[in-house]
Specification:
Blueprint (H helix, E strand, L loop, with lengths): L21 E2 L5 E2 L3 H12 L4 H5 E3 L5 E3 L6 H10 L1 H27 L5 H18 L1 H4 L25 H13 L6
Helix pairs in contact: 1-4, 3-4, 4-5
């Protein structure tokens, strides 16, 4: 539940006033509204974008603000000013990655979509998910030594090695095969 902050200003329904009013891209003041914020978080968690929540495409192809919704800048201000909303927004973005991965299966199985379009849509969702949740969907990078052996660790600072140890290391380095890259 978001923390209610009332600075003595009148609120409508479940509107929650923040430290200051936010001017939306439509020129009117927009107070933080918990119901609208939760609708936004659900929209993002379901795999949709912040942009699609705030804007819609007109018939002429240009984007326009949706009446009654905050601008993208307003949402970013809410994140900066309301810690609980920011935390919930971050979680919605993580959930968005899972939703995108779920969509990949549906897109890949939909034979009504042109194969090239399917590939682009799948790849873009895979890329986004790997950036949003890299530990789960990102590429795994394994650091290994030669031929899959464990990586060579630094055992000691060269000044602390004896002359015999340094000569052994130098001999190994000189006899090791050189791989062209």
């Amino acid at each position: 539940m978001l923390k209610k902050v009332n600075r003595g200003r009148p609120t409508e329904g479940d509107a929650f006033a923040v430290d200051y009013n936010y001017a939306s891209n439509r020129g009117h003041q927009l107070h933080f509204n918990e119901t609208l914020a939760l609708e936004l978080l659900e929209h993002i968690a379901s795999g949709q974008s912040l942009r699609s929540f705030c804007l819609q495409k007109r018939e002429d192809g240009k984007m326009r603000a949706i009446e009654g919704r905050p601008s993208m800048m307003t949402v970013l201000r809410w994140r900066a000013q309301i810690p609980e909303f920011s935390r919930m927004y971050d979680q919605a973005r993580l959930d968005q990655a899972d939703s995108l991965v779920d969509e990949i299966i549906d897109i890949a199985d939909d034979e009504s979509i042109d194969p090239k379009s399917r590939r682009v849509r799948v790849d873009s969702r895979k890329w986004c998910a790997s950036k949003m949740k890299p530990k789960v969907y990102g590429d795994r990078v394994a650091v290994t030594g030669a031929d899959g052996a464990p990586p060579v660790g630094v055992m000691a600072v060269p000044m602390q090695l004896s002359d015999a140890q340094l000569e052994t290391i130098a001999a190994q380095a000189l006899t090791a095969p050189i791989k062209a890259t």
